[in-house]
């Protein structure tokens, strides 16, 4: 196989990973359980599968010090918030609005990262932030807490904030530990945090939806995220983030195919504005890294 063909295979593998992760949108809409219940059983199953995978691959499961353990625990709590609010956003609206409001997280990251890591703030981020806000304007039919779509967008953005904080917190940890091991521990934390829902949920209803929950655990969480982590070996994080921008497209197409949810013109316009900001920020990150590598 030529180098060109090998690179094409790697691109296809990364896109497959993004596609598998994007199934969370249609599954989150299809499952009628309370999102906290769905996420708990999703993570319970995924934690077991990740542990088996890590033992099979003989990954080192040790975390060196208490500071790193604390970071993993906090990131797991943030992951729980990210997933729960995202699934509430899906239930209050549709796949398109849920995934697009979540995908404000790259620009949210661009704002939070300089503050948390004490880096220099880029003025261009202000323009990108305005572009995202303009996109959100098209997603929200009216600013009212009586409107479920408005609440859904707020939940989606809040999910994006949790996700951005989690990614920033784990930035240095990814360089020190195996990605699958970190993911496993974070998933365990999510399961522990949400464990009380067992006492308030109807297990019969959970059993009645075992198939989509199992699919969510295996296809989305384990296969999708593991394949994505493996693909990161072949691409820079920023290059992978640009290709990950296809996730809303895949999610919306799946919603149209399986749920017959067709985005409105306003949703398409708002989504285009948000994704434009995401892609511009990703390209800027690549160029910035290329310049720093040359210097």
UniProtKB/TrEMBL annotation:
<feature type="transmembrane region" description="Helical">
    <location>
        <begin position="265"/>
        <end position="283"/>
    </location>
</feature>
<dbReference type="InterPro" id="IPR037185">
    <property type="entry name" value="EmrE-like"/>
</dbReference>
<dbReference type="Pfam" id="PF00892">
    <property type="entry name" value="EamA"/>
</dbReference>
<protein>
    <submittedName>
        <fullName>DMT family transporter</fullName>
    </submittedName>
</protein>
<feature type="transmembrane region" description="Helical">
    <location>
        <begin position="39"/>
        <end position="56"/>
    </location>
</feature>
<feature type="domain" description="EamA">
    <location>
        <begin position="151"/>
        <end position="280"/>
    </location>
</feature>
<dbReference type="InterPro" id="IPR000620">
    <property type="entry name" value="EamA_dom"/>
</dbReference>
<feature type="transmembrane region" description="Helical">
    <location>
        <begin position="239"/>
        <end position="259"/>
    </location>
</feature>
<feature type="transmembrane region" description="Helical">
    <location>
        <begin position="12"/>
        <end position="33"/>
    </location>
</feature>
<keyword id="KW-1133">Transmembrane helix</keyword>
<keyword id="KW-0812">Transmembrane</keyword>
<feature type="transmembrane region" description="Helical">
    <location>
        <begin position="210"/>
        <end position="232"/>
    </location>
</feature>
<keyword id="KW-0472">Membrane</keyword>
<feature type="transmembrane region" description="Helical">
    <location>
        <begin position="181"/>
        <end position="204"/>
    </location>
</feature>
<feature type="transmembrane region" description="Helical">
    <location>
        <begin position="124"/>
        <end position="143"/>
    </location>
</feature>
<feature type="transmembrane region" description="Helical">
    <location>
        <begin position="149"/>
        <end position="169"/>
    </location>
</feature>
<feature type="transmembrane region" description="Helical">
    <location>
        <begin position="68"/>
        <end position="89"/>
    </location>
</feature>
<feature type="domain" description="EamA">
    <location>
        <begin position="16"/>
        <end position="139"/>
    </location>
</feature>
<feature type="transmembrane region" description="Helical">
    <location>
        <begin position="95"/>
        <end position="112"/>
    </location>
</feature>
């Amino acid at each position: 196989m030529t180098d060109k063909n090998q690179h094409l295979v790697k691109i296809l593998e990364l896109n497959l990973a993004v596609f598998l992760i994007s199934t969370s949108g249609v599954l989150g809409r299809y499952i009628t359980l309370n999102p906290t219940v769905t996420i708990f059983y999703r993570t319970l199953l995924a934690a077991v599968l990740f542990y088996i995978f890590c033992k099979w691959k003989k990954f080192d499961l040790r975390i060196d010090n208490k500071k790193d353990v604390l970071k993993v625990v906090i990131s797991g709590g943030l992951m729980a918030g990210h997933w729960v609010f995202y699934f509430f956003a899906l239930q209050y609206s549709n796949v398109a609005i849920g995934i697009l409001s979540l995908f404000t997280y790259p620009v949210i990251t661009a704002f939070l990262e300089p503050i948390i890591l004490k880096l220099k703030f880029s003025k261009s981020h202000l323009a990108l932030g305005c572009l995202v806000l303009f996109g959100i304007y098209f997603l929200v039919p009216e600013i009212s807490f009586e409107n479920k779509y408005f609440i859904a967008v707020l939940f989606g953005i809040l999910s994006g904030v949790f996700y951005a904080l989690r990614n920033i917190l784990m930035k240095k940890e990814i360089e020190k530990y195996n990605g699958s091991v970190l993911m496993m521990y974070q998933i365990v934390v999510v399961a522990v945090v949400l464990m009380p829902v067992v006492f308030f949920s109807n297990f019969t209803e959970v059993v009645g939806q075992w198939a989509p929950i199992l699919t969510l655990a295996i296809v989305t969480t384990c296969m999708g995220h593991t394949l994505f982590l493996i693909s990161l070996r072949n691409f820079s994080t920023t290059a992978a983030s640009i290709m990950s921008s296809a996730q809303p497209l895949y999610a919306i197409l799946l919603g149209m195919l399986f749920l017959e949810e067709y985005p409105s013109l306003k949703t398409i316009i708002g989504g285009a504005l948000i994704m434009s900001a995401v892609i511009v920020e990703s390209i800027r990150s690549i160029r910035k890294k290329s310049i720093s590598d040359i210097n």
